[in-house]
Design goal:
By secondary structure, the chain is α+β, with helices and mostly antiparallel strands. The protein has 2 domains: 46-99; 103-204, 60s Ribosomal Protein L30, Chain: A (2-Layer Sandwich). The protein contains 4 helices and 4 strands; from the N terminus they run αβαβαβαβ. The protein has helices at residues 2-99, 113-128, 146-166, 191-197; strands at 102-103, 134-139, 174-180, 199-204. It has a 4-stranded mixed β-sheet. Strand 2 (134-139), helix 3 (146-166) and strand 3 form a beta-alpha-beta unit. The protein is rod-shaped. The N and C termini lie far apart (144 Å).
């Protein structure tokens, strides 16, 4: 009887200990998934960090691309303005070359000093633009016969051509033609009109 009591006493002491041990084991095992989950979260956060860095890099590349496009646009705009300015300047120079006539005394094809100065400027222009060819027109006032004025206009045109050639302009680039009294600059009948019509006019071909 006494022996049975000792066995019962031993069971009473041992069983709670075993139950306590099992309970702790379960708690420990239960805590492991949380640690695994925590590791996954860390990995997820690491991935988000990489995505954030990649996004930042992409924004920097976009900013660089935008800056390059803006620089290219400014360069193209500058080139366009330079081209327009060059065209405008060329047009003005051509107009000045063509519109600046030389004038002669009555019944004369001799170049006046003022006419020679104008022709010197034309020489400079022609040398600066070697691909340009010109026609030199000789004109007269209405006095005299048509035949005489055609011959006088021819002498005036050739007088200007010879002057240009003597200063280095190739004769192959120049053509002399006479219109006599056919194309007056001023069609009125006065001394002022006649003075305007006694001229040589250059035209770019």
């Amino acid at each position: 009887m006494q022996k049975r009591m000792w066995v019962v006493f031993a069971l009473v002491m041992i069983v709670p200990g075993l139950l306590f041990t099992v309970s702790c084991g379960k708690k420990k095992i239960a805590s492991d998934p949380s640690s695994v989950t925590s590791g996954a979260d860390v990995g997820k956060k690491g991935g988000e960090g990489k995505d954030s860095a990649a996004g930042k890099l992409s924004e920097e590349e976009m900013a660089k691309q935008k800056a390059l496009e803006e620089q290219r646009r400014k360069e193209e705009e500058a080139k366009r303005k330079l081209t327009e300015e060059a065209k405008r300047k060329l047009t003005e120079e051509q107009a000045r070359f063509e519109n600046e006539d030389i004038y002669f005394e009555f019944d004369s094809s001799t170049l006046l000093p003022t006419a020679q100065e104008v022709l010197k400027k034309k020489v400079a222009y022609l040398k600066a633009n070697p691909k340009i060819n010109v026609v030199i027109e000789g004109h007269c006032d209405e006095r005299g016969t048509n035949e005489y004025n055609l011959a006088l206009g021819d002498r005036r045109a050739k007088s200007a051509l010879s002057f240009l050639a003597n200063l280095g302009v190739e004769t192959s680039r120049m053509t002399a033609i006479s219109y006599g009294e056919e194309r007056p600059l001023d069609a009125t009948h006065s001394e002022d009109a006649w003075a305007k019509n006694r001229r040589a006019h250059t035209v770019i071909e």
